[in-house]
Amino acid sequence: MAQIREQADANLNRYILSLQHQLDRHKDLPRLLASQQQLIALLQDPGNPHKTDQANRYLAWVNDTMGATDSYLIATNGITLAASNWDQPRPFTGNDYSFRPYFQQAMEGGPGRYFALGNVSRVRGYFFSHPVMQGEEIIGVTVVKVDLEDVEEDWSDPLLDILVMDEDGVIFISTRAHWRFRTLGQLPGSEHMLASRQYGNHSPRPVPSRTADRPPTLAALLSETDIARIRASRRYGQAPLLPLDIVRREATAQGDLLLTLIDQPPRSDGLDPQPTGHYLLVSRLLPEAGMRVAVLASLRPLETSVFRTLAIGLTFYLVVAALALFLVARHRLKKRYEAELQRAHEALELRVEQRTRELTEANRRLQQEMEQHHQTQNQLIQTAKLAVLGQLSAGINHELSQPLTAICHYADNARKLLERGKAGSVTTNLEEIAGLAGRMATILQPLREFARQNGDLRQSVNLQHLRQGVMVIMGGQLEQQGARIDWPDDLGGVWVRGDIGRLEQVLVNLISNALQAMAGQAEPRIEVGLSATDEEVQLTLRDQGPGLAEHTLEHIFEPFYTTKSAGLGLGLSISHRIVQSMDGRLEARNHPGGGALFTLTLKRTREHKQEPR
Q1: What pLDDT score was predicted for residue 32?
Q2: Distance between CA 322 and CA 405 in Å, rounded?
Q3: What mean pLDDT do residues 10-29 have?
Q4: Residue 533: is it exposed, middle or buried by C-beta count within 10 angstroms (0-12/13-18/19+)?
Q5: DSSP count for the chain of H helices, then E strands
Q6: First CA to last CA distance, the chain
Q7: Where is the signal peptide (predicted)?
């Protein structure tokens, strides 16, 4: 019961907030309309058709903008002069509403509120009114009607019904259509609302006092005098205002009501007895709005819970008995299984120990294989270097031939000058010989760098120095084939991370492949491009050959894959591994303008002081 009441109270609060929100949206609209010049002008000149049309159209615009049901202007005699529905089949214009309490309240000088059934539209609505003042004189009344029927349609809880009652206990909003315009009587606290809201500042009707024979929580139902008064106000039309079919009612400790009532409309044949429902009624008074909001929470979940609890109790005892039998049987089985489990455990430990030894041995063999693989990889790289030494020899031979010839010439001249006693000229020749020897040492340096086994992959390499080493190695082959390489001009200011010997090996492989692809061309040319960011540097090598086939691009960096009739297919594979070891990338594709395009991406580093070789 406590849970049902708590839920009902929470839903009641939610519904009241929704209802008040819908009312508060429009409560100040009559006061704003009362200050509009179009309406004041019509009240000053009621018979003017132009002013009447302006007022009608203005009220229709306000009605559409604010979402109200109807808006209209009433003269002091109660006759409607303008209305938002002026162009509808049954407009309010010309109707007399002087009998409505909201009109009487506004004529007394204050705002009015009232709920009633529309006299013309027959639609339930809540009416707000406000006097139109000219100085100290009331010259008319503005009225806004709000349709509250949407509130019923939005409620979808089958175990909770909503009731909204007026000060007389007449239900005018309900989620059950056959309960509308039925009476529930006056609940506690309704007396002062009845006196202050029903008649405004008129003399209120006497409120009957409580007597000992009346229930403390539900006053007497409407008398014939009350029904006659309500019908005279035409508030609910010709509704019979019959009481709800309450079979039994009982007060709770919190002041709420437990009701047993017939909750279905009567059958037309009148033969079957009507079903009854048990409800908890929780209500709250809204004196300012002139209404009381209540919820009827069905006690069906409570009844279901009682039966479910009894069923659970019986089931519990049956389960306990079955559990006792189960535990006895389980104890017997446990002893038998424990021995089998122990044997299985010992067998499992033996298998785990054996498997552990096997895995340890397999891990040891794997580490040995990885070490051998690493050694093999370094050996393959070194072997690939040695395979390029033929090209290096041709380049060294080409570069050293001129300095050696010059050294012989200068030495022969120095001998002759010594014979003639020209010591100063001999010194000059010796200086030239020393310079040529230094140049030859510089030429031989790439050979030593290129042939060494390992290098520091984290050192800074200047691209200009890298270019010089590559040109020394490839100079002979380039001259022999009549080819040229177009290098960028700004290589000296770019530094990358890696090993200069291995980078030379990569570029020599790429240039050699490009020259082989352009074999037979009259003027073979290789274009080297450079692009750099703060983090990376990209070198691109493009040849003028036929390009690479699609299936070749898929396998080009795989070991032993080659499209040449001679060769092992290790050059590009080893180059790819070298670049990866430097945290770089080597990629291949075809250039849109023709030929193959290889892209070498390396990490960029800061400038490093390094003497050129």
Answers
A1: 93
A2: 112
A3: 84
A4: exposed
A5: 14, 18
A6: 96
A7: none
Q: What is the mean pLDDT of the chain?
A: 80
Q: Which two tokens stand for residue 228?
A: 């006659």
Q: Which residue has the tokens 């000059």?
A: 428
DSSP letters, 17-78, are: HHHHHHHHTTTTHHHHHTT-HHHHHHHHSTT-HHHHHHHHHHHHHHHHHHT-SEEEEEETTS
- Give pLDDT tens digits for 140-178: 999 999 887 766 666 667 777 878 887 778 887 887 777
The 10 Å CB-count burial string (b at 16+, else e) for 311-346 is eeeeeeeeeeeeeeeeeeeeeeeeeeeeeeeeeeee
Residue 66 Cα to chain centre, angstroms: 34
Helix (H, G, I), strand (E, B) or coil at 3: helix
Amino acid 418 reads L
Q: Can you give the pLDDT at residue 448?
A: 59
| Structural element, H or E, at residue 171 | strand 171-174
Residues shown for the chain: 613
Which of the listed ranges 124-133, 276-285, 427-436, 595-604 does the model predict with the highest average pLDDT?
595-604
Q: Output the CA–CA distances (angstroms, integers) from residue 170 to 24, 98, 167, 564, in the order listed.
A: 23, 23, 7, 103
User: pTM, whole model, 2 decimals?
Assistant: 0.45
Average pLDDT over residues 218-232: 69
Contact 83, 97 (CB under 8 A): no
Q: 275 is written with which tokens?
A: 């079903």
Task: Retrieve residue 501's tokens.
Answer: 């010997």
Q: How far apart are CA 273 and CA 269, in angstroms?
A: 11
